[in-house]
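Record minuted for everyone:
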Amino acid sequence: MRLLPRLALALVLVPMLALPSRGRAQDAAAPSDAAPEEPPPSPELAEAMERYEGAERLFEQGDYRGALAEFQRIYELLEGHPNQFFVLYNLGRAYEELHRYDLAIDMYRRYLDEGGDGAEDRAEVEASLRALERLLGTVAITIAEGGPDTAEVWLGEWQVGVAPGEVHIPGGQHTIEVRAQGYEVLRREIQVASRQRIELELELARLSDFRGVTPALFVTSTALAVASLGIAIGLGVNAMTLSQDAEACRDTAGCGLDPSARRAEIRDFALAADVMYGVAGLFAVTSIVLIFVTDWGAMPEPELMEAQPTALRVLPAIGPQHAGLVLDGRF
């Protein structure tokens, strides 16, 4: 099948001039009078004729997608024109070359319906329709219970239909995609022969509603890391102070400190400081991880934060013989 020739389309686009009246015809017959000038085409018709030249060139070069885009624009420009239906034929040709036989069939049918008696090549187009219909297979798709009410069915970069329902695709082996908002994309390898009908029941998995943890966890983890670090520093300072006291006592006559007991006390404080440094590091690593898994959009508005008192406070408690954390909260 060929494209609608450029000359034929150009003739279609040129608006028919109204026949002159008898008086004007007699005036036009006078040799001294100039022939009436034809009114220029409208801007839409002029653009359509210009675009057709490019569309024809793209089609001949094998750029069927580019030609399709041009033909679609031409069809829009001819809105309301009595011969707009001619462009439907060329749209069908472009879809046919792109192996979208279902859309080509739709364009050819519209061409025949809208063209009526004006579609002089009706027999040829009807023969093409019958040939294309024999190239398509039918896939009847249903969605398992619990799935979405409707889903889009894609073949490559084309949407070929919706599910539940029937889609018509060229015979062969294909990978179809079923897409629905709130559900994971389902890909399925299928094989369908031309003029064959197969049935599929597909189960779509719902996407997780998890968007991240609350920012309160990050704030709490960071506060615990800071508090643990403060306790560790306090314990370390206390161990250093006891060590300095022991050194001073050793150089002082009559000092009554028990060196063994003091060394054990220093060792305990140093060990506790090391443990708290480790705890602080653990909470710090946790805070870093929480940065990436926190739903920051869930943070309350500033005015709400001011209106609500802090629910939890972590305070260090350090003494000569003890160290720990104090939780102060309102529930």
